[in-house]
Amino acid sequence: MFDTLTAPRAKRRAGTSMAVSIILHGAVVGAAFLLAYARAHMPKETTVEVPVAFRPPPPPPPPPPPPPASRKPKTPRTERIKPKVPPTTVIQPREIPKVEEKPPEIPPEEPEVEEDEGVEGGVEGGVVGGQIGGHIGSAGPVEFNDTMTPPQKIGGPDPQYTSQALEREVQGLMIVKCVVSTQGAVRNCRVVKSLPFMDRAVIDALEHRKYTPALLRGQPIEVDYTFKIKLTLPQ
């Protein structure tokens, strides 16, 4: 009895589920078909290339102009008013004074000098009333010149080298001026051309020498004589 009742219910359930599944499959297939149709008829996307021109940026604006230099205010020039110099009036004298001419000066007459006659044995330039054989130039030494006979060495020491001059090997020419008296003595020596460390040694040697006096016309005369001393290192 139970079998007969349950069989028709089972058949009904099976038929209902079959119908539902068919409907679902049909809906799925239809949706798929619609999607395919829609895709086939959709407009295709087209890409359009738009040309783009790149322009360089505009140059920077110029710097602002420098402010105008401040001008120094012009100082008004003051015109110098030249003083009016009144015209000088020249007043001419009515009469031109005469210039007195001085008489030419007459030079005074020179007194006549009586020439004394010389004596035999006297010398030129001697003193009137002097003794025969006196020395010329007794008032002082005269400069030696070529008209005189030079003094000649009679005796005396030679200059001795100093230790400082030997160490520095000093040699050469020295020039010394001395007074040579009528007796042949040497005095008042002055160095004209010097050598290092030898001035005093040369002067001492000269002032200890003895010379013949210088002669003028055969007569002794006191002269200022120039000595040339050549110094050579000892060998």
Keywords:
235 residues, alpha+beta, TolA/TonB C-terminal domain, 3 helices, elongated, disordered N terminus
Percent of residues in beta strands?
15-25%
Kindly report the spatial arrangement of strands forming the biggest sheet: 1-8-3-4
Instruction: Tell me which oligomeric state these chains represent.
Output: single chain
Helix coverage percent: 10-25%
Using the alpha-carbon principal axes, give the shape.
elongated
Q: How many helices in DSSP terms?
A: 3
CATH superfamily of the domain at 142-231: TonB
> Unreliable stretches, pLDDT < 50, 5 or more residues?
1-7, 110-135
Radius of gyration: 74 Å
The N- and C-terminal alpha carbons lie at a distance of 182 Å
Main sheet attributes: strand count, strand direction, barrel closure = 4 strands, mixed
Overall SS class: alpha+beta
Q: What's the order of the H and E elements?
A: HEEHEEHEEEE
CATH class of the domain at 142-231: Alpha Beta
Compact description:
The protein is of the alpha+beta class and 235 residues long. Helices cover 23% and strands 17% of the residues.
Write the topology of this structure.
Layout: H1 2-41, E1 142-143, E2 153-155, H2 163-167, E3 172-180, E4 186-193, H3 199-207, E5 210-211, E6 214-216, E7 219-221, E8 223-231
Parallel strand pairs: 1-8
Antiparallel strand pairs: 2-5, 3-4, 3-8, 6-7
